[in-house]
Design a protein that fits this description.
722 residues; mainly beta; Neuraminidase; OB fold (Dihydrolipoamide Acetyltransferase, E2P); 3 domains; eight-stranded antiparallel β-sheet; 7% helix; globular
């Protein structure tokens, strides 16, 4: 007689059978604890709690330095948690398998054959790759509405090996004749590009070193910071990161000026297969190739990079470089654990990971919560200003000024040259260089020549130097002019250092000769932040310092005509022969006369920002160099144009300030604006005087290339600030 189960199991023994079977079934389907150690399952599957695949390239060349996957001695490698085979070759022969990617369903591998300029697709488990399209594969994406899978493809700009791509399109994976435009507004660097789950946004480098978040339609771009390997969480949270210049931290950003934080990734490497949260303390070697997987909690990267190469540490590659799969903590503030994927004697580069549960993963809402409201009375900057033509807050991101006739408004940028660079508060550090404002044509010249009204505000700190030569703080003039009697008219703010009086004179100059058509506007103390509002009209100039009433200076300006193609320069004139030492931020240029109330509003907004600037923890020490990092050439750090080099010092004595360490690492500027700097090399054993501050107080350096090719990278890090 047929029986039903479990209804007919009425004996006690039968009841236990039912319970036992039910419990076994539950154990099979229930999610494993995050740190479960079920020996019967694959180690990566235990780590991710889901089927997991990882793909990467292995460098078999003699030099073991093909970190950018440019050569033809690469092997396509993979790891599938379900097949029990561990890491293995996916194709037998070496070739160029640049930047392999996994499809959204994890069943196919997409890679670029760079020498032939074509995108290839390979079914997992097959040995017959097929040509998909021309170009280079940057990422994969699944359309949530049509359930179709796509590959984002870029076209290389310029010669072979170019670091820039353009005209990004998405090509349908199962029907490559179907394509759609993705992004053409800017060039894109190929190190990483990733779409949100809905396909509305993409993170990338637009181009290097400008990490950004792009809205794809209508196209717009939000600046995330300078660095490389920008990545976007694979959901719709728009949580993104930019990899820092030292290659040790992810700088995470939330949208709409939400919270920002750093996550260290330099301590996840080790001899074991799993590293836990405790291993993330301290400091380690450089890492590279960071990329978000299809699951919000997991990322892949490679390291450690601790072998000196022809360009930098990263270029050294080496057999010690392995692939790691890392897991964010629940609050995404740290890496809580990492699993070593590859375990071999060859270098492994460019990983991508697919996790079976990734398609439904989401960043929790509390991770994206905006920062707590600031103190009452804080104002947005800049305050509402009539006829605003150009503005500069700080170097973190450009400002956009709404304009009725310009779609999206005018994006205001700074183009530094020479030793001009970001300061500790992301203000513009002026020093033996210049900063051209962009766009070049802001309507400023036309407005002045027709209406003769102009107002400039700024927060300014001047630094005393040994030189008594006048410097140009601000100039409105054409590019590359030479000073002569027939030089066209201009507007310039000149700074005269007076050592005897321990101050500076701020002078307005309207022509080539400072002796004519000039007026002394104010005296400024060195190393003292001062807020200035300077208003020019037909009959003269008014100056307001720190919100105080205006000081009037008669000066006939009604006949002054600025030459065409004049633009705004900061920290120097266009000749670059009159630099100023100091710091400038919170700049506004408007075509209106600023009233007393508007000037006070500018001062109030600036003072709120100024109060947040805490003095640096500075120490003056006598020290001896113990070990040096090699000073790279400008070519060796390209496409970076600035680099710090760290040396190991032993402290002899502290002359002022506080420094609790006996031995420290100190970073010195070695390259600025693509030019090697004097004093970048140090002599071991020679006593030197150093003025240093902790590196952690200088967040503006996160995006700079930093060379640290010395043994004791764990020592406290400082920066030479003199």
């Amino acid at each position: 007689m047929a029986t039903t189960w479990p209804a007919d199991c009425k004996t006690p023994c039968g009841g236990w059978v039912v319970v036992t079977v039910w419990m076994l079934a539950w154990m099979l389907i229930a999610p494993l604890p995050i740190d479960a150690q079920d020996a019967s399952s694959d180690r990566l599957a235990r780590f991710t709690r889901a089927p997991t695949r990882v793909v990467w390239v292995q460098d078999t060349s003699r030099g073991a330095q093909d970190v950018q996957a440019q050569g033809t001695e690469l092997v396509l490698m993979g790891y599938d948690s379900l097949d029990g085979r561990g890491e293995r070759k996916l194709l037998p022969d070496p070739a160029n398998y640049a930047r392999p990617l996994l499809s959204p369903d994890g069943r196919r591998i997409i890679y670029t054959d760079r020498p032939r300029g074509r995108v290839m697709v390979l079914d997992w488990g097959s040995n017959r790759p097929q040509v998909l399209t021309r170009g280079a594969a940057l990422c994969t994406w699944r359309d949530p509405s049509e359930k179709t899978e796509w590959v984002v493809v870029g076209q290389r700009l310029g010669r072979a090996g170019s670091y820039f791509y353009r005209n990004l399109t998405r090509v349908r994976l199962d029907e490559p004749s179907v394509s759609r435009p993705v992004w053409s507004r800017t060039r894109v660097s190929p190190d990483n590009f990733q779409l949100s789950r809905d396909g509305d946004f993409a993170a990338g480098v637009f181009p290097w070193p400008n990490g950004g978040l792009a809205r794809l339609a209508p196209p717009s771009l939000t600046h995330l910071g300078k660095g490389c390997w920008a990545s976007l969480a694979p959901d719709n949270s728009r949580l993104a990161w930019v990899f820092d210049g030292p290659h040790r931290h992810l700088r995470l950003s939330t949208p709409a000026d939400g919270p920002k934080w750093k996550v260290a990734v330099d301590q996840i490497v080790g001899s074991g297969s799993i590293k836990t949260r405790a291993a993330t303390a301290g400091r380690g070697a450089e890492m590279f190739h960071p990329r978000w997987s299809n699951h919000v909690r997991y990322l892949v990267l490679t390291g450690p990079y601790n072998r000196k190469g022809p360009i930098n540490v990263i270029s050294g590659g080496g057999p010690q470089v392995e692939v790691y799969l890392a897991r964010f903590s629940e609050d995404f503030r740290q890496i809580e654990a990492a699993a070593r994927v590859s375990q071999n004697t060859r270098p492994d580069f460019f990983p991508d990971a697919w996790i079976g549960s990734g398609s439904t993963s989401r960043v929790p809402a509390n991770v994206m919560s905006p920062a707590r409201p600031t103190a009452s009375g804080q104002q947005a900057w800049p305050p509402k200003t009539a006829n605003l033509l150009w503005a500069f807050h700080d170097t973190r991101k450009p400002l956009t000024i709404p304009a009725g006739d310009t779609p999206g408004g005018t994006t205001c940028r700074i183009k530094p040259a020479g030793r001009v660079r970001p300061g500790r508060f992301f203000e513009l550090r002026l020093s033996r260089g210049t900063a051209a404002t962009e766009p070049g044509d802001t309507g400023l010249v036309e407005h002045w020549n027709t209406r003769q009204t102009l107002s400039v505000s700024m927060m300014l700190t001047l630094t005393a130097t040994r030189s008594n030569r006048p410097g140009t703080l601000l100039a409105i003039e054409p590019a590359s002019i030479t000073r002569s009697s027939d030089t066209p008219e201009r507007l310039a703010l000149i700074v005269n250092h007076r050592p005897a009086e321990d101050d500076f004179q701020l002078v307005l100059v309207t022509g080539p000769d400072p002796a004519t058509g000039s007026a002394v506007l104010a005296t400024l103390k060195p190393d003292t932040a001062t807020h200035l509002v300077i208003t020019l009209g037909k009959l003269g100039v008014s100056v307001r310092k720190d919100g105080r009433p205006a000081q009037e200076h008669p000066l006939p300006l009604g006949r002054l005509k600025l030459p065409p193609r004049s633009r705004l320069w900061l920290g120097n004139d266009s000749s670059t022969r009159q630099p100023v030492e100091g710091r400038i931020s919170l700049v506004t240029v408007s075509g209106s006369i600023v009233s007393d109330n508007q000037a006070v509003s500018l001062w109030n907004a600036a003072s709120v920002i100024l109060k947040k600037r805490k003095p640096g923890r500075r120490a003056v020490v006598r020290a001896r160099c113990v070990e040096t990092s090699p000073a790279p050439t400008p070519t060796q750090i390209a496409p970076y144009r600035r680099a710090l080099v760290y040396h190991h010092y032993r402290i002899d004595r502290v002359e002022s300030g506080r420094l609790p360490h006996r031995e420290i690492l100190v970073g010195h500027w070695a390259i600025l604006d693509g030019k090697a700097q004097p004093g970048r090399r140090r002599t071991i054993g020679r006593p030197v005087r150093l003025v240093v501050e902790p590196l952690e107080d200088h967040a503006q350096l996160d995006s700079e290339r930093q060379v640290m090719e010395i043994e004791h990278v764990e020592l406290p890090q400082y920066v030479d600030v003199e």
